[in-house]
Every structure is written in structure tokens, then in C-alpha cells.
Here is the input.
Amino acid sequence: MLDTYFQSSPYQQAQSPIPKIEGNQWTPTPSASSDPIYFALSVELEEFINACKQKLINFPFRSTLSPTQRVTNAIIQRIRERNDIVIKPADKNLGPVIMHPDTYHKYCMKILSDTDTYQPIDYSTINESTNIPTFIKQGYLALENILKAHNLFYNGGKRTNQSQSTGQLSKLTKSLTQLQNNERLRPTAIFYLTMKMHKPTISGRPIVNCRFTMTYHASVYLDNILKPIVKKLPTVVHNTIEVLLKVEHLTVTPHSTIFCADIQNLYPSIPHEYGIQAVKSIMQQHKLHNIEFHLDLLHWVLTNNYISYQNQTYLQSNGTAMGTPCAPNYANIVLYYLESSIINSFPRGSIQLYCRFLDDLFIVFENFTYAQDYNQRFNVVHPKIKLSWENDTSPKCGVFLDLTLQILGNRITTKLYQKPTNKYLYIPTTTAHHRHIIVNFIQNELKRYKLYCSDPNDENSCRILFYKRLLSRGYPSSFLLSIFERYLPPRVLQLHQIRQSWNQPKITEKRPVFITNLPSLSPDQLKYIKKSVIFPATLRRHPIMAQVYNIPKGKPIISHKLGKNINYLLTIQPLTKRKTTESSDEANFDTGDPSPKRTRTN
Here is the structure.
């Protein structure tokens, strides 16, 4: 459907934190009272939308795969059906890892055997009439009691005779319980490991895919509540650019010390009581509404993480699952609660810069003694949450995110950090990608070198290595030189422009969106869609339409499903057969992937 049916900003209200009802096939009907655009252009819009529908209905759409893609899918299908190997993703996005099943099982059990964190549950306790585990029924009953206790279960708060008789549940209740009695409900989350191949001793990082589990939508709701708080936390950075802007004009002393550390096994290490206490304190500081309800709901999410591995069910009794939506923001708030008390105990000026990206820290102290003191104080706050400080013998430099930072004189210099395990397997020349994608990829990487490297010599070293690595991947030198010789703005100018853009209010350009659920569209099919949904001049030039939407040449944004790469197909969970259909050559197997659909816009 066209975005005109759903949005008419600037008349649109603020986005609700309540998760949408998934799988809902109801199509909203625009009304003159709620949509000023529809009120003014109802006849023209109806004619245009009906014309679009008719054109698309009459076109024989078919998902098309090239012969190479067909062979690739067949090979992936056969590989994933093998029982003598296990394929899992590597941590830090290093690609797929192939193991013997016994090896993978050993890594899994090393984590699941920690009974302080994972308690085995008897899954056989099932209500025979519904075939639903008892813990699911108990869990939903507890959620219902929480909503009722805070007068949020029914519309208008407390139950009335009218709401009880007509079943008028609140929008929040419908959202949080939408999987109850739904065939898509997963009784347990999917447990798997991403392998830490970059570590000297290989181990596994536990990931829990909570999609379609009982707590999923409650976790999404809490994440929407916690996210605005995290954006306001002064110690948290969200990307490398923020760090560059912070160190750009920072003046340090000859005794200043760089402190780079990380928190060991953060997610499983946060006790429930301590985490909820931390969230309560920070919510009170930010004066949120319904704090007690949010805390009760958070406790329910944390204490109902049921996972399964090889026909055994576990309850995660400590920490939070790495994979539930609210986990990153929950952990960020807990760490801010912990670190803020330590920061406030230090003398003014002793901490010259403080940056944290989730469980990684970059701090500049006035001297080495303060760095040692901070490490000791942090590690005694809670027995389970511990810092790992690796640069205690080299206090003048450190690695944080994509940067190597070093104190030189009264400044902090930066340069790009590239992991020793990086294989630099850039897109080969045999790729089917369009030429402009290759050019943009190379040019953006060169821009990154200029931005991250404060010393031109470091930037030049990165450029030379990048050029040689691309040559080894088969790129012609003439093609590379034509890109490498292009002008790039000076680093200082780029940082200034970024700072200006962040300080200015965000103005989102509104364009209507046409959404299709068709995968692997051929160029001819995509071209036909683009022609079919072009807005007529009478619509796009109308004063009210022009006030809300920018429609260059009458073209809306086209959105369709994004294809999955080989690494993604090899490592997803789990593999199940799917019937082939004449309408889709791509769907030879069901990935079983419960993650949200990825889309591409043109």
C-alpha cells in the first residue's frame, strides 16, 4: 500500500512504544477526519491507487533466479542437511565456522553446565489438552496479573462491566499477549553460539534468538521505553564518529593515561535484583511514568527466558539473554548506574574524558594512579561484574572500537585499527554487483581512512595497503587509480560538517512508499513497478500534497525483500523443508529464521 494511507506528517503523532500486532492483515481505511490529505484529495487518491492496483494485478510477477543462484541454493541445501558438520557464525563478523558436531557440543555444554545461570527444566510437564508447556501458561498468567495490578489490562484502566462483556482489552495487552494461543509461539528460544575465533583460546558466545517467544513483545516494548534514556546518558557513545569528535579538541597533560578495558561476560553477569534496582534509579532520575509497571514487566522478561538445546530445556536464572531486544539498553543503564557512582567519587578534573560503548571503555585519566584506582573501585562494586584491563603496562595508547588512540604531547592522535584476524576478503571482481556499488564501497573506505587517521602518514599507509589488497583480489590498477585519485575533503572539514549536521534539527524528507513482498525481482519487473506507481502531476503539484511530501518526478520509494548472502544462509537456525511453488524459484528451503525481514529501498 502507499504510505499516503498511513502517514501525513506533519499531522502525524509521536510513535508509540507499543509493538505492532504482527501478521495482522487488516488494512486501515483513510478517513477525512484523521487525514487532511485524504480529505482534500480523496477522489484523486482513490483513482490513482485503484489504477496502480489494476496495473500490478495484470502483470505476471515471478521471482527469478539466475542459473548460478539456483545451483548455489541447491548446494547450500545439501551442505546444511549434512549431519557430520556444524556451521555457525564467527564472532566479530569473521564469517562461517565449520566444526565437528562433538566439538560444537563441547563448547555449548561448557556454557550450559553453569547451573548458576542455566537451570535444566523438565519440559515433559505439559497440559495434554492444549500441548502447551505449563511454564507458558504460568508465564502468561503472571503477565496478565501484572497488567491488571497496574490497571492496564482493559481499556480505560480498571475492568468495567462493559469492557468485560465486550472483551475490550487494552492496546498494550493485545500487543504483549499477541502470541498467546497463536501457532507461531515458540515455547523456548533458540540457543546457539557464535565462535570467538579472534581470541587466543577459542570459545563460544551464547546467543538466544527470542523471536516469537512468550517474552519477545514485552522485551520490544521495554526496549522502546529504555532507548530514549540511553540516548541521554553522558558516558555512552554510539559509534566511532562520536569518539573522534570528543578527542578532536581534547587537551591532555604529559602524565595523562589512556584506560581501555572491557567488562567480562556482561549479559550473564548482571543479577536480576541489581539490574532492576539500577533501572529504577535511572528511571526516577529521568522522571518516567509508570515506573513500577515497567519494573514488574522487566522482572517478568528477565525471569522467563526459557531456551532449548538438543531436546533439553533450560531457564536462564541469572543475567539477561543475549538476543532479547531490551538487553543492550538494559545493560547500558545498569552500567551507567554502576559507573556514575564511581565517577562522582573522583576529584574534579581527574577524569579528562569518559566514553563507553556497551561493555567497552575508553577513559583518559589525569595520571596512571587514577586509572589504577578506577580499576580497583569498579571491581569491588559487585562480585559478578568485573573489568578486564589489558593496557595497564602501556598507559599512553589503547584500542577502542575502530580506533588506535595514543597520547602525543598534549593531544590524542587516532588511526584506524584493523584486527590481526582480518582476512580482507573484499568483494571480488567476479561479483554480480553493479559498478557503482563497487566504486562507492572503495570510495567510502578511503573516506574512512581520512576521517579516522589524524596523521596523514597513517592515512597514506592505510591507502597503500588497501590498494595492494584490492589488486590481490583481481581489481585492475587503472580502475583503482581512477578512484584513488579523486579529491576527498580535508579531515578537519569533514569533522566540522558532521558536527554541524548533528547539532541541527533532523528534518526527515517524506516520500510515499510502495511496498512489495516479492523477492529477487528482475530489472524488468522492478522497472515495471516503478512506472506503474508514478504519481500523476495533478497529485504531486497539489499544494497540500507538496506541503507534506517531496515526490521528485512523481516517483515514490520502492521497497522489496533483500536477498540473503551465502554466509547468512549457511549459519541461520534451523533448517526445515519448504514446499516449492511455481511463483517462487527462491523458496527451495525454509531458513527457519525468526528474525525480521530485511528490505531494500530504491
